[in-house]
Amino acid sequence: MQTNLTFNQTLSGNRRLILKRLLVLRAALLCTVVVALLSFTFLVDVRIHTAAYLLPLVGFGFCGYWVARYRKGASVTDANLLRQLVFDAVFLLVLIYFTGGATNPFIYYLLVLVAISAAIFNSIIGWLFSAGCMLAYTFIMFTDVREHVHHMSSDFQLHLLGMWVNFVGSAVLICFFVSRLATALRDRQIELSKVREETLKNEQLVGIGTLAASTVHALGTPLSTMAVVLGEMQHSYKLGAAKWDASSQNENVELMLGQIERCKKTLSKLSLLSQQQQDGGSLENIVEFSDELREHYLLANPRIMPAIVFNNERNFSEFFIEQSVLFRHAVINLVDNAIQAAVRQVKVCLEVDAKSKMLTIDIEDDGNGLPSDVEEQWGKPVISQKETGMGIGIFLSNSTVEKLGGKVQVKRKPQATQVSIKLPVTWAKPAGEEQV
Question: What is its EC number (predicted)?
Fold first, then answer.
């Protein structure tokens, strides 16, 4: 059974990356050792134990073995990572033992290994590894002092003792603080992971809510029509056969069947658009987007037909937005809100700023305007100025636009309300034309 030694369970996906970096670090250490041995042998003329020359060969062999395993895609466990550090520590200690012992300054490379163990392993493993390095250093130092006590001055012995105290103190501090930092990073990583999960859930809920709000708006008109027709038929039936006009009732039945078919088409279209939203990744021309918006309201036949216009003379067919059913219905929700608040007219103006690459959609109605407190709380889920409580569509629309990198702003005017949607656009410039 695999034992989890790392400080964080989520580190499992990075074990191969950690192994790769440990192998690179070991290769750099081995190259440094070879250069140092050759330099001391031929330049300084220092006699070095034969075993010291054989150790790099062992190190390169062990390193090559793990490089081969890494390239074959072998799994990497926590125990494998711990073995790498233990091998490096043992290799360095044996090398130092044969090349001057405690007087060799390369012994401080152990602190690098202590820091790595404290960073990637849990605190228990980190402290055990650190304690092992300190005990090994202690053994080497006191062995050297005991063997060469007659050849060392008291000042040099004090120097070695100071090096040992410095090493032990540094190892303890490194292990303590790095372990604490690793724990803090672990907690932060777990917290961010939870936030990402919650964000994904919220995005899914916003998508569902946006489609649901659009469905309510799309089905509201045909259902209201059928309710009126059924009321008239019921009234005629109560008046008796004298008032029952067969031809008129047949027209009413045909009208209701038409409204039912319209509801079916609306639901089918929403289902198809939802599937397209899941596929994602495509772009939509702004002109096509405006045409679809006009077509929607021609079919919906609302109380007030919104006027959809372009504010500048630029060729809008050159600009594209991310194709999103959620954005389309977010705009529809905001336009529907304007229609319900308007007295006589609703105007939808589209404008593109080529320099900032932003599309602006201004939705303006001639209603009574928003109260100041509602303007301050705009876009929050508590807003609902309707008796039916359907104002949640404002929050859903705002969330959808923000998800696509845009923003929604509301401006209160005398006897009017203007809602502005800003969304990034992509400019597909014609061949031979310079982009401004």
Answer: 2.7.13.3
**Cα separation, 99 vs 91, whole angstroms:** 12
Mean pLDDT of 131-157: 75
Q: With 0-12 CB in 10 A as exposed, 13-18 as middle and 19+ as buried, what is 365?
A: buried
Cβ density class 149-161: b for 16+ within 10 Å, e for less:
eeebeeeeeeebe
Buried b (16+ CB within 10 A) or exposed e, 394-412: bbbbbbbbebeebebebee
Over residues 267-290, the pLDDT tens digits come to 666 665 555 555 555 778 888 888
Portions of the chain given CATH number 3.30.565.10: 280-430
| Among the listed residues 77, 104, 91, the one whose alpha carbon sits nearest the alpha carbon of residue 25 | 91
What 3-state DSSP class applies to 4?
coil
Q: What's the predicted TM-score (pTM) here?
A: 0.52
The pair of three-digit structure tokens given for residue 224, joined into one six-digit string? 């209201």
Q: Which residues contact 253 (CB under 8 A, 6 or more apart)?
A: none
Q: Are 101 and 132 a contacting pair, CB within 8 Å?
A: no
Task: State the DSSP H helix or E strand holding residue 397, giving kind and residue range, or none if neither.
Answer: helix 392-403
Class of domain 280-430: alpha beta
Alpha helices in 240-285 (DSSP H): 246-279
Q: Which residue has the higher pLDDT, 229 or 183?
A: 183
Residue at token pair 């336009």:
335
Q: Provide the token pair at 382.
A: 């508590």
